[in-house]
Amino acid sequence: MRRTRRTAAVAVTAALLAGCAGGPGGGGGKISDGKVVLAVLNDQSAIYADLSGKSSIEAVKMAVADYRAKYGGKAVAKKIDVISADHQNKPDIANTKAQELYDRQRADVILDVPASSAALAVANVAKSKKKIFMDIGAATTALEGQQCNKYTFHYGYNTHMLAHTGDAVTKDGRKNWYLVYPDYAFGQDMQKSFNAAITGAGGKIIKADPTPFPNDNFSTFLLKAPGLRPKPDVLGGMQAGGDLVNLVKQYNEYKLRDKGIDLAVGLMFITDIHSLGPDALAGTKFSDAWYWNGSPDNRAWADRFQAKTGKRPSFAHAANYSAATQYLEAVQQGGTDKSDAVVQRLEGKKFNDVFAKNATIRAEDHLLLHDSYLAQVKPSNEVKEPWDYEKILKTIPAAEAFQAADPACKL
């Protein structure tokens, strides 16, 4: 009897250990609260609502549906909830909402968070709570620099990648720049990155002016441009979303192009071009992280997205889908949604998906490296179908698109 009981006990222990191993299809694993909770925290009512907003929630739901279809009964995450909150682009609200999502709504990961000041606030919350944060919407390099942390991943783009525009336009011969940038973390980082790219290509910053954020009137800055000495060849607009739309409208209203001052845009989304119409931006070059019509795979996913939202996706929408997908893959492979285990699975991961080509999540700083693109806005007479606004001029390989790891980052 003693031998039988001992044998049975060993068998039960072995079974429990096997269940805890929880690899893909193992039927075990440890999922907190019995479900995985994906939270989308972003601007759902103001200047960044169109480029990301509620449509990013749909993109994340698409990732969940694809995960379920791929793994079926072998899915480690049997129940998955997608929740959301609006941070209104304010760091204090982002801080509060992030704490509520992690603590009260039991979010396992927060996704998106445009506005760099808001993203940095959420990164601090993620660090203190030891919960995953995958930022898509913010561009500041501080997320993988001095303010990096073990639980934050910078996923999509950053100001260094965007500044390839400054290099390209300067090498085209437009060497004297007037920069206008929003006066918060994103704009300040953009000004630094573009300054380095422009001067590195032999150009010169004639003047750089901070502008209020958000802002609907740029007349003070635009009317100043023709009187600067030397006269700038190009106005570098570092705004984004609704602010960029206002800037471009006023640039055209004041006919600065006719006065010999071309326009370069630091950050452009397909939704911005759609709002303005392609002729308002025709010929403008910019760096893009992804384009919906850039490949058959991109277009196929964009068709699915459009069926759900009624519009073509921006790169932020595609990146949210990708980040949610890679998070769920890490849960599946590790058999758990425990943060440390997910971090371990994501660090150093190499992959290709509909958004990220030749991608690596760099282990040293959690920055996603992937191919990016130099694009140009088509004039309306070259647009063959709705939303077909971009001409891809060049692919910038992942190794060139992003900066080297910052030694200041200590995960």
Structure description:
The chain has 411 residues and is of the alpha/beta class. It is built from 14 helices and 15 strands. It has helices spanning 2-21, 53-71, 91-103, 116-129, 159-162, 164-171, 185-200, 219-224, 241-253, 270-276, 296-309, 315-334, 339-346, 398-401; strands at 36-42, 80-86, 109-112, 132-135, 152-154, 176-182, 204-211, 234-237, 262-265, 285-288, 350-351, 359-361, 368-369, 372-377, 390-396. It has a 5-stranded parallel β-sheet, with helices on both faces. The protein has a 4-stranded parallel β-sheet with strand order 7-6-8-9, sandwiched between helices. A 3-stranded antiparallel β-sheet has the order 10-14-15. Helix 3 (91-103) packs parallel to helix 4 and helix 9 runs parallel beside helix 10 (270-276). The longest helix is centred in the N-terminal third of the chain and has 20 residues, at 2-21. The radius of gyration is 23 Å and the shape is globular.
- Percent helix: 40-55%
Low-confidence residue ranges: 1-28
Strand content bin: 15-25%
Largest sheet: 5 strands, parallel
Instruction: Work out the number of β strands.
Output: 15
How far apart the termini lie comes to 54 Å
Total helical elements: 14
The side-by-side strand order for the widest beta sheet comes to 2-1-3-4-5
**Quaternary form:** single chain
Helix-strand category = alpha/beta
Mean pLDDT: 93
Tertiary shape: globular
Q: What order do the SSEs take from the amino end to the carboxyl end, as H and E?
A: HEHEHEHEEHHEHEHEHEHEHHHEEEEEH
